[in-house]
Amino acid sequence: MSEAWGVLAAVLSSGLGGTSIGATRYLVNAVDPLAIGSFRFGIGFLLLLAVAFLHGAQWPRHPDWLSVAGLGVLYFALFPILFNASLIFTTAARGALALSTLPLLTMVVGAALGSEALTVRKSIGVVIATLGVALALLANLASAPPGAWRGDLLMIAAALCMALYSVWSKPFIARSGPIPFTTVSMGVGAACLVLISYWRGSFAPVAAFEVPQWLAAIYLGAFGSALTFYLWAFALARTTPTRVAISVTVNPITASLVGAALLDEPLRWNLVAGILAVFAGIWIATTSGRSPAPATRLSRVPMD
């Protein structure tokens, strides 16, 4: 049951991540993407810090500080930089498909580092879920700008950062808990983004923010950061990195649904088919096949 809660938390985390794309799309016309990341993770860090103090959290042990900080830079600073840079060269649909290589990368990294066994069932589930994303984005994949392959590679590099974070963070989460670990790692990543944004002058347009822009930034910080990444760490504490990572295939699905609901983007048959394939893949990868019934030991009957 604990593992089922972990999978559910991962799916919810990825679903929230998909809805955050709508808020990011709205803000990207008003402010630099680096500043958006600074607001997202900065606000998320402050909220998680308040929760951690209220619950009397046990902070990561002193020997873990350097590793936790490194994971924070990897996931909350380098990942968003690569993610945003990739979308300069490629389309959102191709970027979403490239990011959906995360479960495959996590499965390979986990097997290479000896943290998770590579099974046929998980492999099949990952492939089906990734094909579901490709099917859902089918209508938008054909059009690509020249040199889109550079953006695709940058997004795969971002997915690799996420895969390494998912595998390497598991023991630290187990020792300190999801909230303290996420608070510290997110705080380090947010500090890096704030410093880079300040150096680049990315905060200049913030002076012109009105209520809608601030609401979008607060939504990103509260739901797209604090809650999303707490749920991700919660999931990693309860199930394997691959079973957590496969939930990222929900991200472009929810982003498409939000786009259809709020941005009047068309809702086509392939999206529905893709949703079914994604959830079928997640079910296959996160459940165990039927184990054979235990053989009955026949006792030898003495003959008179």
Helix content: over 70%
**Unreliable parts:** 290-304
Q: What structural class is derived from the secondary structure elements?
A: mainly alpha
* Helix count, DSSP H or I runs of 4 or more residues: 13
Shape descriptor reads globular
How many separate domains?
1
Order of helices and strands: HHHHHHHHHHHHH
Subcellular location: Membrane
GO cellular component, one term: membrane
Keywords: Membrane, Transmembrane, Transmembrane helix
Domain EamA: 5-137, 150-286
Q: What's the gist of this structure?
A:
The chain has 304 residues and is an all-alpha fold. It has 13 helices and no strands.
Mind explaining what this structure looks like?
By secondary structure, the chain is mainly alpha-helical. The chain has one domain (2-286). The chain contains 13 helices and no strands. Helix 4 (92-99) packs across helix 8 (148-176). The radius of gyration is 21 Å and the shape is globular. Pfam families: EamA. One of its GO terms (cellular component) is membrane.
